[in-house]
Amino acid sequence: MKKQLGYGSISLLLAMFALLWGCTFKGFCLGDQVLALFGISGWSSGAFRIHYSVFHGLLLYIPAFYFGWKFDHHLFAQSGKWISGCLGGCLLVMLCAILLWT
């Protein structure tokens, strides 16, 4: 049986958008540009600078993982679940390390 589009298919879209939001490609970061429109810096100040857009992307990985897990019988749901689970998990580990280190 062929898998159909559904709520689980949103998982891959959210995971890809989160990746585009937080990553910098050739000096361009979508998250930084959107935050700049609102007058918000994408980076923290001080000696230990944190790229906030990366962690804003974490807020998109969480629902992406949920939709991929809950509706795993839909098209692209498994891919979205694994991508968001791996990248979101790495970000959570990095966030915990930053909180423990500072």
Written description of the protein model:
With 102 residues, the chain is mainly alpha-helical. The chain has one domain. The protein contains four helices and no strands. It has helices at 10-22, 30-37, 52-70, 77-101. Helix 1 packs antiparallel against helix 3 (52-70). The chain is elongated. The termini are far apart.
Low-confidence stretches: none
**Rg result:** 15 Å
Principal-axes shape call:
elongated
- Per DSSP, the total helix count is 4
Assign a percent range to the helix content. Answer: 55-70%
Q: Which H/E pattern describes the elements?
A: HHHH
Count of structural domains: 1
Structural class comes to mainly alpha
Portion in beta strands: under 5%
Largest sheet geometry = none
What distance lies between the first and last C-alpha atoms, to the nearest angstrom? 51 Å
Question: If you average the pLDDT, what whole number results?
Answer: 90
DSSP strand count: 0
Topology, element by element:
Blueprint: H1 10-22, H2 30-37, H3 52-70, H4 77-101
Helix pairs in contact: 1-3, 1-4, 3-4
Keyword list:
102 residues, mainly alpha, 4 helices, elongated
A few lines on this structure:
The protein is an all-alpha fold. Helix content is 64%, strand content 0%.
